[in-house]
Amino acid sequence: MTAEVGRYMKISTKGRYALRLMLDLATYNTGEPISLKDVARRQQISDKYLEQIIPSLNKAGYVRSVRGAQGGYLLTRDPGEYTVGMILRLTEGDLAPVNCVGENPVSCDNSENCALAKVWSRVNDAVNQVVDNITLADLLDWQTDYTNQYMI
Amino acid sequence: MTAEVGRYMKISTKGRYALRLMLDLATYNTGEPISLKDVARRQQISDKYLEQIIPSLNKAGYVRSVRGAQGGYLLTRDPGEYTVGMILRLTEGDLAPVNCVGENPVSCDNSENCALAKVWSRVNDAVNQVVDNITLADLLDWQTDYTNQYMI
DNA sequence: TTAATTCCCACTTATTCAATAGGATTATAG
DNA sequence: CTATAATCCTATTGAATAAGTGGGAATTAA
User: How buried is residue B47: exposed, middle or buried, by Cβ count under 10 Å (0-12/13-18/19+)?
Assistant: First the structure.
């Protein structure tokens, strides 16, 4: 009886892949740069698409790039210093379910009288509460077998 | 520094309008059927679009329709019996952020080893926890002035 | 000097969102 | 009985977005 599924309330591949990328860098870190080609192979994601995702992580200082042969990317911090929320917000933008709540709320004609704004605000808080309290270190812990891929 | 905003994690107009529609029916209920034209005027939503949204609410038995002149729609239950989650799930489908968690999870190659599935599952739980614990009666309470519109 | 890599930007294809449009059916009021 | 007001049903549309592909320039290690 449920409606046919749309893309409502869904995370995009950009955000999911960014997380898998960061988790891959954390998992296979040796101190040497890791190339996107390696990440792409392990994660079964197009390397060209990863190339499009990583600049925002790079510009934000979440990773450091090393150009040229044997180059690649490295995390700049300890895995425990990255929350899932940081990474998602960078690649997906605001996680709020509507534009009138969240980081840069768009005000509407009747915000103080709007019962639904309260709903969206609570949803926003609940989502952020989750993603801001999980770090890459937690994800490393939750992986039972580091050699497998994470297909989500 | 945030990414340009997409539609990630957003509720669609369908779900938002369905909530406003149901809340309008609750707010202006007199026992007589309320026409979509009236709802559309009050909520400033296209009546033709509302016409497209209401069949699922009707088929699910959330509203009752009265055809012909002076016809319209009526809630079939007490406002306290409708949760925001019921209404959203009917019009938006599953609220899970990815397809591998939620009502009808699509299994993937490596679900038990997937650290990210745990993240999505927690997000899903958090969202549902909010929307399943707010009823139309709560929304009625939260409205300070019943004569205004709810523009969200 | 070659090969491997990041970097940058344009392009594409399919899907989805958010409506609009037209008309058939049903019932009420006069 | 007839005009009108409403639900019902299905098709179409235009714009935006998602999710990638493609080409090539710049940089660096071996």
Answer: middle
